[in-house]
Input
Amino acid sequence: MGCRRTSSRLNRVGSALAVVLALSGLAALAAPAAVSPFDQLRATPSRVEGSPEPAGERIVRIILKGNVRIPAHRILGQMHLREGSLYTPPAVDEDLKRIYGLGEFDNVIIRPEKGPAGLVLVVEVKERQVLARVEFVGNRQFSAKDLEAAAGLKAGSPLDPQKIFAGARSIERKYRDAGYYFVHVVLDEEAVAKDRAARYTITEGPRVRISKIAFSGNASIPTSELEKQTESRAYVPVLAAGTFDENQLNLDLAAIRNYYIGQGFLDVRVDRRPEFSDDKTRVKIQVLIEEGPRYRVRSLALQGVKRFAPAYLEKLMELAPGVPYTADRVRHDLDVIRGEYGEIGYIDTVPRPETQFTRERGMVDVVVKVDEGSAVRIGEIRVEGNRLTQDKVVRRDLGVFPEEPVNTKLVDKARRRLEGTGLFRPGSVQITTIPTQDPDVVDLLVRVEEAETTNLILGAGISSNSGVVGNLSFVQRNFDLTAWPKSAQDFWRGEAFRGAGQLFQIVLEPGTELQRYRVDFQDPHVADSDYSLSTSLFYFTRARDSYDEKRAGGTVGVGKDLGHNLQAFVNLRLEAIDIANIDAAAPMDVFDVKGSSLLTSVEVGLVKDTTDSLLFPTEGYRLSASVEQAGALGGNYTFTKVIVDGRRYWTITQDVLDRRSVLAVRGRIGDILGDAPIFERFYAGGQGSLRGFRYRGVGPRSGDTELGGHFMALASAEYSFPIFEKTLTGVFFVDSGTVEKKISLSTWRIAAGFGIRFTVPFFGPIPFALDFGFPLVKEAGDQTEVFSFSIGTSF
Output
């Protein structure tokens, strides 16, 4: 059977006693002496060695010995060896490690024994002692329960001396996090060895708060800028806890140093000197800074550049001889180099800057080594994640095609354009390259996560403009007119009429002063062609200040993609209008259109759109010009309406989450040739034109009646910036403009304000807009309104 070997060690007294007992014939009465739990750390798992291992024999039975506290199934569940499996020494070693890994045993022995029926595997364990109790002395700030949680200890858990020792440091960490800088925790080791008790004596000391953080030596960077780099703050009742945390202070000093280095102060030294009050409850922290020189670029060189003239890249870079050597400039220049190469298919280009210190103090030579790699072209374009949306809907908005060189700038635009369709969750679109067997070819993998494009909204509201208005609307932004349901389940699961990127909506808005009912359908690519189609049927009634207006009709529009982001369109309109319930004091402009009349028009125009997103543009421009001729298809009115609208977007900053701060400007000019009826003239005020003024609150009027104008000019600027994740954005804006009876800029209004944009996942990616506008320049009779609300964007 071989000699049994155990890892339990007898101390010297126990060993001597065992020898004496053996010599006197009483060895059977001997017992091993108690072992300190700290000595037990040196115990190691073992298996019996000696006689030849019965490798390859089948195990007929497994016997477990020595377990009292730990159930058998928990031990046997760690083993790969089972009754019926073949015995092998490597399998035994693996099972030893797994059982010992439970952390419940001081020793584990696995030995094979020959039995009448075959090989028996004996698993003998020695359970680790358990912790009898956890005690705290001197704790007033925290309860015993809180300290137990901090130490990770509780009565009944395995007695782990290392963990008990570490518990003292964990308790000190908890106190210091709360500002008890002078705390001291002592572990009673004798209580652990004799009584299996973890007893901690705590000297809490006073709670220390930061009274002031002072900076000295920062001649080049203002204190306010350095404070932005730190988390530690001086105590201010209610506003700032002022906790003195030495670890956090060390992190703050490192952040300050890194900021200085990023600004070109490569030799900067940052230290601190705490000054405690007499009672140790307050500390003033002196941050000591030795800036050293601000390093400047003495020379700049590009190495490895073959595809471009080095002088061309140097003109695009911010680093140049004489300028400060800063981290922002380095990052900008590396992005520029990668962008220029990526635009011609060199997606693996790696620029590496090297800084070489010179003998001239404060001067460095910068060498940017460029590993150009090789140009690659697009092979296959794969689309994943579009469970309902058709592949062609994704592909047509990409703007990149197989066999073209990979253009990283166009790929990034394609990603933002797909997100801007509103069909996919914001931030979910990913376009990555996949190597192929051909080193000159990569596949593009487009991963999308579909957004909820179906919205059913039921609500009601009240406003000074429209009175009480109800709303019941159904909107499907990913509609497919041809995808009829094959079963009732398809319809109720929302899998019918979806996937082609069409728009279908029904809006029902009954109200006391305003009623609006409409059905809209849009197809951006009819039968996968370059033609688009939009149709609308509507019924509208509105109680104006001095008359009631009722309109019913429809529109049909056809667009043609001319290439290069240019589209031409033709819109046809047919409306029946009824003006009734006219006040006796109403102006003649209202009486001129009293009763029922018919309006038809044909509108033609061009749209040039280079923006990167339909819903959230961050760069590019959108320019449209149209001429609408009323009376072209008959009717009671003849006039011509000309409108030119332009919008431009610039990304000012971009963070690591791809959130962008964007500056947008917009201009809109309209002129009417001929005599247009009052309900077709230009009006301004409210969202989309002049925030800070009421809807139709700007322009010619007679008493309480807005007359509108034949000329309109609007100019606005808006700066948007991220606030929280990608769901909340802030804006500052300036709106200006006028509405006149004829071409004139004699009465110009200006308003400024701020607002927020937020999205609600239930309603999809369409943003809600809340704005607060304040008129700065206005005319007598203008109607103002501070708060305005809309769904969608006005820019």
